[in-house]
């Protein structure tokens, strides 16, 4: 189960509505007002390695793939 999608577990609990309510109450992702998980990559959705400078909002892996297309040059 990933951090962003806890809905996959609902398949087994659809026939048990009371357990489904309890599961949603205790396992729903926390609403956050600050921190690392608010900034996500616009292309792939990763949380870690986020580059927000110049308004890029890409993770470092996506930035490496698209740096030349964005107009950055690699020196050395």
How would you characterize the overall build of this protein?
The radius of gyration is 18 Å and the shape is elongated. It has helices at 10-13, 17-27, 60-70, and strands at residues 50-51, 58-59. It folds into two domains: 1-31, no CATH class; 38-70, 30s Ribosomal Protein S14, Chain N, CATH 4.10.830. With 76 residues, it is mostly helical. The N and C termini lie far apart (42 Å). Strands 1-2 form a two-stranded antiparallel sheet.
Order of helices and strands: HHEEH
Structural class: mainly alpha
Identify the CATH architecture of the largest domain: Irregular
Look at the structure and name the CATH superfamily of the largest domain: Ribosomal Protein S14/S29
Total domain count: 2
Provide a short characterization of the protein structure.
Strand 1 (50-51) and strand 2 (58-59) form a beta hairpin. The model has no long low-confidence stretch (mean pLDDT 85).
SSE layout and pairing:
Blueprint: H1 10-13, H2 17-27, E1 50-51, E2 58-59, H3 60-70
Antiparallel strand pairs: 1-2
Q: Which terms would index this structure?
A:
76 residues; mainly alpha; 30s Ribosomal Protein S14, Chain N; 2 domains; two-stranded antiparallel sheet; elongated
